[in-house]
Every structure is written in structure tokens, then in C-alpha cells.
Amino acid sequence: MNYRHESLNSVLSFTFREREMMMSGEGEGKVVCVTGASGFIASWLVKLLLQRGYTVNATVRDPNSPRTKHFGELEGTKERLHLFKANLLEEGTFDSAVDGCVGVFHVASPVVLSSNNPQADIVETAVKGTLNVLRSCAKVHSIKRVVLTSSTAAMTQNGNPTTPDVVIDETWFSSSVFCKENKKWYPLAKTLAEEAAWKFARENGIDLVAINPGIVIGPFFHPILNFGADVILNLINGAQSFPSPYRFVDIRDVAYAQIQALEVPTANGRYLLVGSVVQLYDILKFLHEHYPTLLVAGKCRFDAKYEPTCKVSQERAKSLGINFTPWEMMSGEGEEKVVCVTGASGFVASWLVKLLLQRGYTVKATVRDPNSPKTEHLRELDGATERLHLFKANLLEEGSFDSAVDGCDGVFHTASPVIFSSDNPQADIVDPAVMGTLNVLRSCAKVHSIKRVVLTSSIGAMLLNETPMTPDVVIDETWFSNPVLCKENKEWYSLAKTLAEEAAWKFAKENGIDLVAIHPGTVIGPFFQPILNFGAEVILNLINGDQSFAFPYIFVEIRDVVYAHIRALEVPKASGRYLLAGSVAQHSDILKFLREHYPTLLRSGKLEEKYQPTIKVSQERAKSLGINFTPWEVGVRGCIESLMEKGFLS
User: Fold this and answer.
1) Cβ atoms of 272 and 313 closer than 8 Å
2) Residues 132 and 91 sit within 8 Å (Cβ to Cβ)
């Protein structure tokens, strides 16, 4: 069968992690080189480096080739992307490309598994090419680090048993003898190239870091079919070109790891990148469920046996801040399904609408006024024209949500006032939260197609109780705020969230509604709605010297929150409450981060570091949903970039 590029891209497209959105202006004023830039990994790397503000010297075989046209669509290409002609087998050919760079990403290497002349076509090109790049780097004193793209193939081909009790990690090296005996030419090339790189780097004082990814999958925008896509395409067509199990890693996790390997000062040695070890049967089952029309009838083996396999260490990769994307998180889960999102113009809900549309859902989104300028950012989202429908609704009006939830498979109730003080807190904060929740649930109770309601609650509905928050205490889903204590302390937002959740559980139980509650901490990260959200306000106040918000800070990144909401709907066994707390950050840690990365933003003389005994938060249930929390630094960085972009900071 012959598939269009777009169809395969859809199959491979992961939509949740969007690593490119995590990037700040870290690279502004810096020049880096990427070799083999027209390839799959390198194209993504160039894209994210440009987004991050770097100037990129990119080497290709022919700068005028149609294979480089996809670069023209990248943001920043005209100003900061420079193409250089280079040949892996010619010494000195990379000199001009690496000159003046602060870092070099050596990605160029033939991804060829078989050849009539493997020594010349695969091995020599990889080894000589690596040495030629490093020889050019050795001449440039401005280069602080070289990041080498190696492969798990340079680790696993050694004859060692891969039984379930074995863990592959960065101490594994492939055997060149084993590779030759078994005609494993690509692993041989990667093994010898990496060996040569470490030897040359050691002898010439080059700071080298190696990235060793598994089978790289995900969306691609270069014109040539890559190896990971070829593996998936062959499975669709009924051919198994690569043995099961599959050690997959998402392309954005790989590109992000490469950038982290350059930017994190303590990065060193090798980093194994495998997000998931997947059985053939599981992939075929996924394809059958989500893309049944693509599969070649009669050729897909659903009798595929389970292959016992070893484990893969993620410890060092996670030390770089990598939270691996689950392989299952491919687009299309929501195709032909309809969901409702209440309060859609808010921070969390806007991101939720965005990712639901990317996932293929039709979204019925409620807002106070569909014609308000506050909804324009929703109309600009990919898929909005075809699959986003705005509905006017009022939390205090019963029946107001009937038309929005009608015909839905699931409902996300996020609408609630995020207000902490008021002259009339009962009317302005508590009543809209409680009555609004009940009005949404009353509308849901009338619709038999709704399988589940996901309620956006808050950690505020957990923390305000008599339990002392000492360092030995662990906050988890069994914690409930005490309404009496909330009233006594005038914690109106926490009171509203507590009473709204209580009312929701009572109504759901009485009316047979499958309810799941999400309890995020302070949500931070990039935002695209026009109004300042609470998490961004916390960061902005810190920058301006206001330390009025309680600390330590229990942060969670916006995409982790949205991903948890979607998982809470899609995972059949999801139930009860889920606490989302990615990091507990001290005031002093945040100030240190701001001073290091954004020193010109801080208001001098106003920042006094404070420390409070830390607290622990359980992540066990959140991780059962597949949530791998993003470091708080990423969220703060994304938040600050949005604050600057929207003019809240200069």
C-alpha cells in the first residue's frame, strides 16, 4: 500500500509533551553547529535550537537540494540558520561550519542496515566522519562541548543475555567482534565511531557527551522516510522488519536531551534514551484499535508472542530532566469523540482544549461570552475551525450547560473562580464554585452518552486541616481540607474548592456519575491566553520583590496537569482523586534560578531569601496515570518567556 506522508505522520504523531514549547531564549547570541542537518533527528534539533534563540550552522551534503526545503518553514530560519556543504569523508570540510561555535551536535551518520560493501558504505563513513568533525572541533577554542548522537546499537550487541532480570544501562558496550560475526553493520559502525570519538576527545581535551537513543519515533517534517517511521510503516503493511520487543523513544525527548546535554554544565559521559520497551502484540493491538483502516487485511499477526525482555535504565536520562513520552500517546485517540470543557478561556482549560484538538477530539467549550476577545486564542488553535464549538454558559444558571454537554463522551469541569479575597467571598468565590459544579453535574446527569466527568479541583482542597505539615509528613490523596478551618483563616479559595468537591462526590454517588478529581498544586508554565493566570502572577510577584505567597512552593507544570486530565478520561481504571505536585521548591532555590538565568529582570534590593521546612508530597497515584513530572525550572522558564512575550515583563 502507498501512504501519503500526512497519513503516516498522523500515525506517528505524539502530541502531549511538545518539548519545543519548553525552550526559552537560553541560546540567544550563541552559535552552534549541527551536522547532517537534513535528517530526522537533526531536523528536529535545528527546529528546537532556533526556537531557543541559537544561531545554527547546519551541515548538509547539498545546501541547494530539495531535501533542505523544510528548513524554510522554520521560525528563525532567515535570521539564524546558515547551511554549509560538508562531506563526512573529507577532512577539513567541517572547519568553516564549526568556526566560532560554542557547541557542536554531531548527528551525521548513515542509517543503513545492509550493503554490498558495508565497510565502505556504513562503517568507514560513520567512523571517519566522526573523526573529521572532531578534528575540526579541536581547532576551535570557543567550542565548550561536543554532543555525539550515538545509538543503543552501540550498547546492546554484545551477546549478553537480555532476560527480564537484566538492566541495560550506560555501562553496556557492543562488541565489534560480535557485530562483525553477526553482520550487524549499523551497530558495528556506531560502536566503532563512538569508541573513536571517546579516544580522540580524551587525547585532545574535548568535552564530549554521547546520546544513545533507541528506535526514534514521532512526527517528522523532513521529506525522507526515517528508520523509525519505516519500522511502523512495515508493521502496518504486515511486515516485521525489526525484531520485537521495540525500544522506542520519542523524537522530542531525543532532541531535548541533546540540548540539555549541551546546556547542563554537569552533563557528562553517555545517556541511554529509551522511553518504552514495547511488544509487537501491543503495537498491533494499538494500530487495530486506532487505525483499523490502515492495516493491510490478513497480513498483521495478532498471534504475536510475548518476548521476555530485559529492563532499560532511565536514571541518567532523567538526571538531564528528561520525562519520557509514553509510546501510546499517539494522536487520534479522540477521533470521532466529543468532549466538553467548561471555563475554556482559562489557563488550564485553554491548554486542555489545545491538546484535545491535537488528539482528534471535537471540543464543545463553554465560556461566558463566545464573542469576547478573551476567546480569540482558542479560535486560532489547530483544528479549531473544524472541531471547536464555543457555548455561552453561566455557572450560576441551572440548565446553562445542557446544550454543551449533550452528546458528549466526557466532560472536563474546570470552570471556577480563581480569587483569593473579596468583600463578599460567599457570593464571589464560594457560590460560583459549588453551585457551578452542581449545575454542570446536573446537566451531565441528563446525558447517557457521558462516560466520565473529570473535575479540576486543587491542592487547596487538601492542605487546610489540623495535620501538621512537618518534614516527616507526606501529603497524599487521603488529605481533605477542613471547611471550618478554611473559614476561620479566611482561606476562601480553599473553602470553595473543598465544598465544591464535597458536593461533586455526593452528587456523583447519588446519580451514578463516574467522577475523577484532579488536584494540582500551583500550576506554572507557558501560557497563551491573554489574561494573567495565578501561577504566572506568583512568578511575576517574585521577580518584582513581592513575597506574599506562602512557601515552599508546590509547583506542577501545565502540560503535566493537562496530560493528567486527559489520562483521567481515557484510562478505564482511573478513579478517585489524583494529587499533582511535580516539585516542592524553596524560595531560595527560585531566586537562585532567577539570578542565574534572568538577572536583568530582578528588582535589585527587594529580594530576601527565605527558607521554610520542606514538605513531602506523594506522586504515586499520579504516576499510575503515566505522569512523569516536569522539573519546576522548566515551568518557571516557560512562564517567564510568556510573561516577556505578552509584555508583562521587559
Assistant:
1) yes
2) yes
Pairing state between β 515-520 and 269-273: unpaired
| Spatial CB neighbours of 200, under 8 Å, sequence gap ≥ 6 | 131, 134, 135, 138, 206
- Which residue from 412, 434, 415, 561 is spatially nearest to 492, judged by alpha carbons? 434
Q: Where in the chain is the domain with CATH 3.40.50.720?
A: 20-157+167-224+247-277+312-319, 338-531+554-582+616-630
pLDDT at 172 over 70: yes
**Per-residue pLDDT tens digits for 65-101:** 998 998 988 878 888 999 999 999 999 999 999 999 9
* Dihedral Cα 182, 187, 189, 190, nearest 10 deg: -160
Q: Are 516 and 578 in contact (CB under 8 A)?
A: yes
CATH class assigned to 20-157+167-224+247-277+312-319 = alpha beta
| Residue from 127, 119, 149 nearest 39 by CA | 149
DSSP 322-391: --PPPTT-BTTTTTT-EEEEESTTSHHHHHHHHHHHHTT-EEEEEES-TTSGGGHHHHTSTTHHHHEEEE
| pLDDT tops 70 at residue 329 | no
What's the CA gap between 45 and 85, in Å, rounded? 18
> Is 648:537 a contact under the CB 8 Å cutoff?
no
Q: Which amino acid is at 252?
A: R
Q: Could you please state the CATH topology (level 3) that the domain comprising 338-531+554-582+616-630 is classified under.
A: Rossmann fold (3.40.50)
Sheet holding 583-585, edge to edge: 522-524, 553-557, 583-585
Q: Which whole number is the average pLDDT over 516-529?
A: 94
